[in-house]
Structure formats: C-alpha cells, structure tokens
Automatic annotation (TrEMBL):
Sequence ranges of the WD repeats: 416-457, 489-524, 531-572, 573-614, 615-648, 657-689
TFIID subunit TAF5 NTD2 domain: residues covered: 159-287
PANTHER family: TRANSCRIPTION INITIATION FACTOR TFIID (PTHR19879), TRANSCRIPTION INITIATION FACTOR TFIID SUBUNIT 5 (PTHR19879:SF4)
GO BP field: transcription initiation at RNA polymerase II promoter
Record localization: Nucleus
Gene from which this protein is expressed: taf5
Chain spans, region Disordered: 1-59, 90-111, 334-381
Gene Ontology cellular component list: transcription factor TFIID complex
Keyword list, A-Z: Initiation factor, Nucleus, Protein biosynthesis, Repeat, Transcription, Transcription regulation, WD repeat
UniProt-listed Pfam families: TFIID_NTD2, WD40
Family: Belongs to the WD repeat TAF5 family.
Record's protein name: Transcription initiation factor TFIID subunit 5
Keyword Glycoprotein annotated: no
Alphabetical list of InterPro entries matching this protein: LisH, TFIID_NTD2, TFIID_NTD2_sf, WD40/YVTN_repeat-like_dom_sf, WD40_PAC1, WD40_repeat_CS, WD40_repeat_dom_sf, WD40_rpt
Length: 749
C-alpha cells in the first residue's frame, strides 16, 4: 500500500482510523492536510474536539483563522455557530481596526492578521488546496455556502442532514461524468457510502432525512444488495441499530474495494477540490481501498467478484501458501483374490496387478510437492478395520467406471416419501451402505441401503458369554433380535440441520437448532457425546476424511474444529460477518472451507487457525461446497443459482456454471474428478464437464497482481446433462466408489 507522503494520504491504509480526535485537536496538520479534518462528522465521539479547540494556542489560532475567513466572506451566522461550538468569548474576534482587512502587526492577544504570512499558513492547514482558497473570496457568498458547511460539519457533531443528499448527488454526477473505463470502478463506492451515510443519519436521530435519503438513492444500488437494503430500511431509529449484528459489523469492519490507481486519484482529486470531507471521512474510516497498478477493471469483471457483505477479499488475503496436495497413501499390500472377475477378463493376471499400480504405486512413491508433510497435523493411526476398508476401496476402484462427456454416470435417486417431519439434511456413508436423514422433528433416522439389516451390539451380560477367540466374533456380538432396516435416534431438542458419517462408518454426527452437535454410535445407536460450544443453531457439520476431527458452523458466525475425544473445540475460526451455512474439509484434512450468508467462502488452516483464502463472487448465502478429489479446486453453490469454481493455489475464481433456476443445495465431484454434479431446489441434477473447465485454464494468464478475472461464458459447453426429478428438490449427492451417482431429497407433492 502506498504510504502517507507530505501530508497527502495516498491510499487508504489498512490501519483502523479511530474516531477519536488526535491529541493535537483540530489543528493537527501532520498528516491531515490532504483530507481536511480527521474526525468523522458522524461519530458521536467527535464532540470531544469541540471542547478542546480553544485549548492549545496553536489550535486556537487555526480556529480564529477559520472564523476570520468566514467573516471576510460575510458569513456572520456561520461565525456565530462555530464560535459558540468552540466555546470562544465574543470579543475573541475583535481585530485592531474592527475589520478583517486591517494590516498591522499589533493585534490583540489571540487575534489573527489575515494579511500576514503566518495567517495564510494557518489557513492552508484547514483548506485542502490552495486553489480553493484563492478562488473562495471571488465567489458570491451564496455559492460558497456548501463548502463552508463542510468545514463546519467537521466541528459539529455530524454533517448537516439536508446536505447528505447534496453530497451524494454531487458524487453521483461526478462518477457518471468520468470516462467509461473509470466509471465502473468508481461506481463501487456508491453502495458502502449509501449505507454509511444512511446509518449516520439514523444514528444521529434524523429520521425524516434518513427516510428521504433512502427513498431517493436505494433504487440506484446493485440488485444483489436487495436483501441487505430490506434489512436497512427497517432500521429507522437509533435503538434499532443496537440489536442488529450485521449492521454493527458493517460499521466496524471495513468494506473492501479494489480500484486501479488512476481511478482512485480521480476520486481523491474530486473530493479534495470540492472540499467534500463528509464523504472523504467515510471513505477513510469505513472503506479499505485496495489499489492496484494497471488497467481499470471492466463492469463485467467487477460484477463477477462483488456481492459480498464486506466487499471483495483483499488481494493480500489470498497470497498465503496453501498446501493443497494430497497426503501419501499408506503402504497396504493388496491380497490377490482367486475370484477376480476372470469371466470378465480372460487374462486374470494383468487384472490383478492393475489395482496395485493404480491405487498404490503412483501415490506412495512420489510425494506431491504441494502436499503438506504427513505430520503437519496429527492424524489418527490406521486400525486393522481401516486397512481392510482400504483394501475393499482399492478393489472397488479397479471396477470403477471411467466417466467423461461420452460416458455419463447412472443416477439413482432416493426420494423420501411422506417426509412430513421435514427432511433437512442427508448423508451417505463412503461405501454407500447406509443413508441418514436429519429431520425438523429433532430426530435422526438411519437406513440400510443394502440387504444387510441394522443390528445393535448385544447387552453386556450377553457379551460375556461369547468366545472372544472365535473367528466370527464381530458377527457374534451383534444382536439378531434388533435387526431392522431403520433406526431412529432421539436426543436433539430442535430441528436437525446437518449430518455427517465418519469415514469408518462407526459414528454419525448431527447438528441442530438446539446449539449442540451430537456424536452417535452406529454400533449401539445411542448418543455418545453432546458437544456444546455454539450458543445458537448449528447449521452444518462435517467429518474429516481421515476421521477423528470434525467441523461445525452456525448462527453465531464462528466455525469450530473439534476432535471426537475432546469436549472443548480445538480451534475457533472467526471472521465471517453472518451465519456459517456450509462446512467442508479439504481432502488432506489440513484445511477447512466455510460458506456463509455474508456471501463469502473462507479457507482456514487447521494448524494455525488462520484464514488463508477469502473468495467473493456469490450474490446470495452459500449452501454447497465441494473440493475436487485432487485437492486443487473448490466448487461452491448458493441461493443465486450459480456454481462457482475456484483455484485454491492461486486464490482466484476460474469458472462460473449457470443453468440452475433455484438454490444450489449440493455439489459433488466424481471419484476421478472428471465430472461435477450439482443438485438444486429446482428439482434437477446437472452434470458438468469438470475436466474441461479446469483444463482450459492457462494459469499463466492469471494476473494475480491485479486480481483481474476473465471468465468465459461457456456454461452451455460444459453442461453434459440435466436430469429432472418428478417433484423432489435435490438436497444431497454422492458418488459411489464405482462412480454411480446417488441423489436424495424429500418428495414435495
């Protein structure tokens, strides 16, 4: 960022500019020459400067110079207001000759000789540019009134309410008159300025002015801010602001705008020439302007990236190194099966060698340079049962169907009929043997999808009778009398919003409106732990691909990382400005992605707890996230009906898939990463060519320095198929190990 040079603020610094006046009161001329006065007119704490103005002699001289300047332009009413505000005695302005033009050196104590060099230097501190000072005396008093009011507004508690419309209209006229290439960039300023000016009016109890301001300019804002404006319009009194968290965030966090240096200089010059420090103060206090060198961005490029509650992510936020590679697979020898599909393939031997090479060889020998070290975060040891499962996985992988544009997956749709309990969440186990649903009646229901029924472990007394040395001990401990296709889990005291199976199928997580996350045993079908940490509804939870860790996020806007054997969260990820609606683990378990109602996606480092990526571009709350199997890419879906694709390494948006007509609720990559499936509330499943979307990318074209994104509008080329359900919104998708696509939702008659 550019530094402050010679008192001119060259770029809005990242540092928070506090609303309290600095120690040297109003006369501070160290770094404020370029922006008139540092105290925001709208901040209530600026009253502190009123009392101290008459304190320091230097401050008093500055103030007297301003008063002289006003009197010279026959603005006696303004002189009186300012004098009273500053608490100066009435005779403090009496000069030797009784008028401001008298030359001479022996004025009364505290008086200022306007013709003297000292006075002009004092004046230059308060007026922002010498040209304005030179022109001012030649203007008629009436013309000069707005500028003087600006100077006054910095001293008074806030700006003159009726003038807010004048300021905003003036800026609007200016931006509409600049060259097209700058207009799109500068138009980004409208929305945050509009909100802050409206809040300032409401905060200072100017209800009618605030209402008029809102009615006049709310229609000019971008359509994707409609929901925010609806909330804003309901806040018409100062008391309303206290309870609204979103609003408090808007006032305290800085709205990020990405603007080219040329456009920024234009805006700065305009505001300083007009001495419009009301707007300049808001820009400096509440906006973070991320300035880049180079060509200004087009309207299309800006629209692609904008829409979030706090503007775009800073470019700096997406520069951190992310280890997106996959961890090395553990060395497991694959036993050769005698019955290895010899009917399918006459030569049985190559068939048997292939899985070893396919699943093991390539992965285990070479370490991915982008992968984190195996020990970067502690991961659970592989148990014997996990190793058996890995072997099963490898065998299934050999029979996996290779998908592509000419070979689309079959889709098996599970419709929940008569789900009057209100189906809110669905999950499948990794091996596709179980399906679970979370319901609005506080229950979690688990079904077996295979002929194998669900059984509980026998009671302790019965277990004592079993021979523990027998080969089929795992079979004997199950109680046949409890076998059924469905088990219902009771324990939550509010609707269940998120569920997730552990990778080893022994546990199930559920999160609920009651603020808890529960861990259920799938051996006994009882609740083992209730994790309490969230104070509000928990919208989503997700197990790590390696088990043991899980993530939860909810209405309190904080995501929490847990381990199954700890009551307290291990990490808290705080930064979102609204509810966290979706959570996902990266395939290597070192990172967590969270999607939020603030319309941003954040990527968090599990080890450090830092936010390493902020992705903006969605125009509505985010409800679906999916990492590609190779860990390089992330797909996201939201209420804006779009699916966006992100390159994690470069921290940039690389694609936009349009086609759905309602909220995208679920996303899933096929096991080989060839196809992306998206499910939506519009009752359709769509299949997209993920390989083509990612292969068309020329990563050298990424101008990461400026953050320019050139997205091709190639949704139609990438769309491989659209599949309608009868009347069932798609709330979950899952690819089996052989690449069959499973979809689920509740039939909506």
């Amino acid at each position: 960022m550019a530094a402050v040079q010679g008192g001119q603020v060259d770029a809005v610094e990242e540092k928070d500019i506090k609303t309290e006046p600095s120690n040297d009161g109003c006369g501070n001329n160290n770094a404020n020459d370029g922006r008139l006065l540092s105290t925001s007119p709208g901040s209530s704490s600026s009253t502190g400067s009123n009392k101290s103005t008459a304190g320091a002699p230097e401050d008093q001289q500055t103030l007297l110079a301003v008063l002289q300047f006003l009197r010279k332009n026959k603005l006696s009413e303004s002189v009186e207001i300012l004098r009273r505000e500053a608490g100066l005695p009435e005779d403090s302005l009496d000069l030797k000759g009784g008028d401001s033009s008298g030359a001479g050196s022996g004025g009364a104590a505290g008086s200022v000789d306007l013709e003297g060099g000292d006075a002009s230097s004092l004046l230059s501190r308060v007026t922002s540019s010498s040209s304005a000072v030179a022109q001012a005396p030649t203007k008629a008093a009436g013309e000069d009134q707005p500028d003087v009011n600006v100077v006054l507004s910095a001293y008074s508690q806030q700006g003159d309410p009726p003038l807010y419309q004048v300021y905003y209209s003036g800026l609007k006229r200016f931006i509409e008159s600049v060259l097209d290439c700058h207009r799109a960039e500068l138009s980004q300023v409208f929305y945050p300025l509009f909100v802050h000016m409206y809040l300032e009016l409401v905060y200072n109890n100017h209800e009618s002015e605030a209402k008029a301001f809102f009615e006049k300019f709310s229609g000019d804002q971008e359509c994707y801010y409609a929901d925010d404006l609806r909330v804003l319009s309901s806040l018409s009194k100062r008391e309303h602001m206290r309870g609204n968290e979103t609003l408090l965030d808007f006032r305290t966090s800085k709205f990020v705008l990405r603007i080219s240096r040329d456009s920024y200089q234009l805006l700065k010059r305009h505001l300083q020439e007009r001495q419009n420090n009301q707007i300049w103060n808001i820009i400096q206090e509440h906006l973070y302007i991320d300035i880049f060198d180079g060509m200004p961005r087009s309207k299309g490029q800006i629209d692609t990236m904008s829409g979030s509650l706090a503007g775009e992510g800073k470019r700096e936020a997406n520069k951190a190194k992310v280890y997106y590679g996959l961890l090395k697979e553990p060395e497991i020898e694959l036993p050769l099966d005698d019955e290895d599909e010899e009917a399918e393939n006459e030569e049985g031997k190559p068939k048997k060698k292939k899985p070893k090479k396919d699943s093991m060889g390539s992965k285990s020998k070479k370490q991915d340079p982008n992968a984190p070290s195996q020990t970067r975060i502690p991961l659970p040891e592989l148990k014997d049962s996990d190793k058996l499962d890995k072997i099963m996985y490898m065998k299934e992988a050999t029979k996996r169907i290779r998908l592509g544009p000419d070979n689309l997956p079959s889709i098996c749709f599970y419709s929940f009929l008569n789900a009057y309990q209100g189906l809110t969440a669905v999950d499948f186990t990794d091996d596709s043997s179980l399906i679970a649903g979370g319901f609005a009646d506080s229950t979690v229901r688990v079904w077996s999808v295979t002929p194998k029924k669900l059984r509980k472990v026998k009671s302790a007394a019965d277990l004592n009778l079993i021979d523990k040395e027998s080969d089929d001990v795992l079979e004997r401990i199950m109680d046949e009398k409890t076998a059924s296709e469905l088990k219902v889990l009771y324990g939550h005291s509010g609707p269940v919003y998120g569920i997730s199976f552990s990778p080893d199928r022994n546990y199930l997580l559920s999160s609920s409106e009651d603020g808890t996350v529960r861990l259920w045993s799938l051996q006994t079908f009882t609740c083992l732990v209730g994790y309490k940490g969230h104070n509000y509804p928990v919208w989503d939870t997700h197990f790590s691909p390696h088990g043991y860790y899980f993530i939860s996020g909810g209405h309190d806007r904080v995501a929490r990382l847990w381990a199954t054997d700890h009551y307290q969260p291990l990490r808290m990820f705080s930064g979102h400005l609204a509810d966290i609606t979706s959570t996902r683990f990266h395939p290597n378990s070192n990172y967590v992605a969270t999607g939020s109602s603030d319309r941003t996606i954040r990527l968090w480092d599990v080890l450090s707890g830092n936010c390493v990526r902020i992705f903006t571009g969605h125009k509505g709350p985010i409800h679906a996230l999916a990492f590609s199997p190779n860990g390089k890419f992330l797909a996201s879906g939201a209420t804006d009906s779009r699916v966006l694709l992100w390159d994690i390494g470069h921290g940039l948006m690389i694609g936009e898939l349009k086609g759905h007509t309602d909220t995208v609720y679920s996303l899933r990559f096929s096991r080989d990463g060839e196809i992306l499936a998206s499910g939506s509330m519009d009752n359709t499943v769509r299949l997209w060519n993920a390989t083509k979307a990612f292969d068309d990318l020329e990563t050298d074209d990424f101008t990461a320095a400026t953050g320019h994104v050139h997205l091709q509008d190639n949704s139609q080329e990438l769309l491989l198929g659209t599949y309608m359900s009868k009347s069932t919104p798609v709330i979950h998708l899952h690819f089996t190990r052989r690449n069959l696509l499973l979809a689920a939702g509740a039939y909506n008659p």
